[in-house]
Amino acid sequence: MTTLPSGFACARRWLRDHPLAFDATLALCVLIAMICGSFADPGKGHGPTFGTRTPEVFSVLLMVLAASALVLRRRRPMAVLAATGVLTATEYVFIDPPAPVVMSTVIALYTVASRTDRPTTWRVGLLTMGILTVAAMAFGSTPWYSQENLGVFAWTGMASAAGDAVRSRRAFVDAIRERAERAERTREEEARRRVAEERLRIARDLHDVVAHHIALVNVQAGVAAHVMDKRPDQAKEALAHVREASRSALNELRVTVGLLRQSGDPEAPTEPAPGLAVLDELVATFHNAGLPVEVAGADRGPRLPAAVDLAAYRVIQEALTNVRKHAGTGARAEVSVVRVGTTAEITVLDNGRGSAGRESGAAPDGGGHGLLGMRERVTALGGALTAGPRYGGGFRVHAILPIEARTGEPEPPGPAATTGERR
Description:
The chain is an alpha+beta fold and 423 residues long. The chain has helices spanning 3-17, 19-38, 57-69, 77-94, 102-115, 118-139, 147-227, 232-261, 279-288, 306-326, 370-380, and strands spanning 40-41, 49-50, 293-297, 333-340, 343-350, 384-389, 395-402.
């Protein structure tokens, strides 16, 4: 039961891969059909009869030439249609009753219709139908309204319609296939884009956590080593800060790695994401590390959206970390967070001497990505960040973050309504 279908499938694939062989086989079948039809006498009243006539030599020659032309029907469809049309018209003009050479013209017209556009199909089809029908009616011995003459008109018309339908279906299938391939490419590109964005987000979060806490650990460890012998109490205090900073770093890293290890949607974190609500605690850690930080303006309006709140916190954290790492001894920093219309502006200033890697946010060995990470985080929310040296010395980081309007919230206060605290 499975041998016959598989044999047909193999034959179909072979013929599809060898179109010239298929066309040669089709031409041979058409030639056999035309020769068999040439032995039939149309007769009168009761249909055609076989064996009452034989085709003339000239008709056989025309049938052989017309069938041979069909071998090239895919390569030269218009030329094959013209050749078979001329041979068919010649048969109608000089032979009566004519042999069915018109069969080759029907095949050629179908090929043209299936491989050209619709306007060309109908122009060529109507021209072929008109010429052959007029030749059959004008030069045949039968009345002009006989079924043989009307059959020429019908068969050529059906060949044009069938070829146009096949072309339309083929174009429709190709369009569906192309649309599916384009959708697959789009899905793959979207997946790659999402993976790249997620990698950048993870890299920014890890950099913010590690850079901040490790910088504080480094500072406090240096203080402890410096005063260990002369002031052990101060050394113990510094080591306590080291322990606290390392514990905070481990906790944040544990949360981040835990989210990465989850196979489904991340569960709600056990602790809220850091934001401006814990700005005082962040500033305190820098105070403990020996960096005086003054909060000149702290926003007291409604809580910012979670993404904006986290971005503002990370910008301040990274900017203060860079101050501690690059500004040198004796530097002081100033932080302000204000709302201006539908935006939140974060500014971090310092009066430090600066270092060679300051503008790129790089460490002295050139391996940092601080400012780059801040800029990516801000621009991802549709904001803008500028950073550069201040006139007269020091450095300035200024970020503008758009605030998404939320239903039911009061209007955010303007700059004049912002409250501040001095520290």
